[in-house]
Amino acid sequence: MSVINFGHSVSLSEFAAGIDVVGENVTIIGQGEPGIGKSAMLKQIQIRKPGYETAYIDCTLLDLGDFALPYTEMHTNELTGVNKKVTKFAPNARFKMHGSKPVIIMLDEIGKAMKAVKNVLLTLMLEHRIGDDYLPAGSIVFGTTNLLSDGVGDMLEAHARNRVSLVTVRKPEALEWIDWALSNGIAPEIIAWVKQFPHALASYTDASQKDNPYIFNPTRAGMGAVVTPRSLEKASHIAKRRAELGDALTISLLTGTIGESASRDMQAFFTVVDKLPTWDAILNNPAGAKLPDDTVARCILVFSAITRVEKETLAKWMVYLQRMDKEWQALFCTSVMKSESKQAFCIMNKEFKEWALANQWLF
């Protein structure tokens, strides 16, 4: 029997599922720490509902004039026949009310919006309406905001909270993030670093993490760059181009992206990467290519293989992989099976199937 979570927190995937299932009737607002992936929800919901239009609304930039503009229209009184001009309001095209398709509207950073703007958004969240105009049938409105304890100025008043379902979205744990990273082109050395330093994705809401130098913590004075899922994705772009950037600039950029503690630790991973056998060397001689003894090196090699292996190269990689300890074999095989793009050719591969049958106990 599963354990019931009485509203304490939800994962990012659960947040997306809630919006997908009941978002047409309930406006769900997800509150969570900075940089955990809340703002990426619009793309996730669009994947689930491909027939919908999308509208991203940055609430921090909205002013009252951004909702609708007035225009005049002649109105004839049915009883007296007298014509009079009346003022109506045309909604801003950014809300996609003018189309025939249902719309997914994301109200990002709604807790930081001006109070007057929030008041206008109340009818959009509750009735899917701005002025006299309604969203197309089936439309979805959802929002994101930071935790009040983050100390970055987010606030939803009581009357606003009563119109929505406010849920806390928890920060992804290291293994959750790694599963995402493997399918989204994150540099292997960044993934391996998170594998070795999982506390880099811990939450400040955990009292035991008060001295964690990697993470966002609103109680820490003078806090600079920190490790978050968002900053790790940016760090990946830097890591992939470090040969062009050079060592000094790479570390400077990483320090400004994920913080000094994380960048200095990651520097050691780059040193290991530069000593690894190349992918071509492994494929050309899987039975004899250099096999590093270092744990970090093997970790990076495995994660690199998960992102690079294809149908034509899997058999040769399996020969090389089985020269490693079982834990690395299991890490590769269980992780690659989570990839929708790679799972199909893995289960059809002779070497992979033989390994899976011989090591069923690992699953």
Structure description:
The structure is a single chain. With 363 residues, the protein is of the alpha/beta class. The chain folds into two domains: 12-66 and 96-168, 3-Layer(aba) Sandwich (Rossmann fold), CATH 3.40.50; 174-362, no CATH class. The chain contains 16 helices and nine strands. The strands form three sheets. It has a five-stranded parallel beta sheet with strand order 2-5-8-1-9, with helices on one face. The protein has a two-stranded antiparallel sheet with strand order 3-4. Strands 6-7 form a two-stranded antiparallel sheet. α6 packs across α10 (260-273). It is elongated and about 95 Å long. The mean pLDDT is 90.
Quick overview of this protein structure:
By secondary structure, the chain is α/β, with parallel strands linked by helices. Helices cover 42% and strands 14% of the residues.
Strand order of the largest sheet: 2-5-8-1-9
* Distance linking N and C termini: 21 Å
Arithmetic mean pLDDT: 90
Query: How big is the Rg?
Result: 26 Å
- Helical content band: 40-55%
Give the uncertain stretches in residue-range form: none
Tell me about the biggest sheet?
Answer: 5 strands, parallel
Number of helices: 16
Task: Return the string of H and E elements.
Answer: HEHEEEEHEEEHEHHHHHHHHHHHH
